[in-house]
Amino acid sequence: MAHRAVHKTFRVLIVVARGIPDLILAIIFVVISRLGEAAGTLALSIGAIGLLSKLIADSIEETDPQVQEAERATGAGEAQVFFSATPRQAAPAFVAHIMYLLDTNIRSATLLGVVGAGGIGFLLLNASRVDQFDVVTMVLILMVAVVLLVEALSMWLHRAVR
Predict the structure, then answer these.
(1) Model confidence over 92-129: pLDDT tens digits?
(2) Rounded to an integer, what distance in angstroms lies between the CA atom of residue 13 and that of residue 31?
(3) Taking burial as the number of CB atoms within 10 A of a residue's CB, which of 37, 61, 70, 150 is the most buried?
(4) How many Cβ atoms are within 10 Å of 41's Cβ, its own excluded?
């Protein structure tokens, strides 16, 4: 980012969004919006925005400046340089970051459900409380299957982008 003030402002916002753990955000949103999926979704969204913003910003900053200089040498403006050179270089990292975040959020959603933020963790906790171990087992098997499916999708997308 050419403007230092804009760069610093957004970096501070990213750090603040990342600085509050998902579990704390879930508890805050449960207090605000009561028990349910909305609290978990909001908590994961804020955490995801902070993490994904940092990862994508770092990926953009690590792009090769020589490619951007070559674009400028052809007479391209700043917007053209950014949109033609940067995303192509950073696309594999973008896909990897998004898939990592999806995987992380699936796992976090289970934990957040335990504190009353709804979702699969809430079902898992309730089933374990009333000794429905068949339900607990099925939920755990499905969670592992979903994580493996996301991992397979991630590997396929990573190969497709490269």
Answers:
(1) 888 889 888 888 888 777 777 776 666 778 888 888 88
(2) 24
(3) 150
(4) 19
Cα 100 to the chain's mean position, in Å?
A: 7
Q: Are 77 and 44 in contact (CB under 8 A)?
A: no
Q: How far, in Å, CA of 97 to CA of 54, rounded?
A: 10
Task: Name residue 79's amino acid.
Answer: A
Angle between helices 65-73 and 78-114 (to 10 degrees): 150
Residues 6+ away with beta carbon under 8 Å from 93: 55, 56, 59, 62
DSSP string, 66-77: HHHHHHHHTT--
Distance CA 3, CA 12 (A): 15
Q: What is the pTM of this model?
A: 0.73
Tokens read off for 101: 């975040």
Run of H or E including 131: none
Angstrom CA distances, 90 to 7, 24, 32, 64, 110, stand at 19, 32, 38, 10, 31
pLDDT in tens, 28-49: 888 888 877 788 888 888 888 8
Q: Is 16 exposed, middle or buried (0-12, 13-18, 19+ CB in 10 A)?
A: exposed
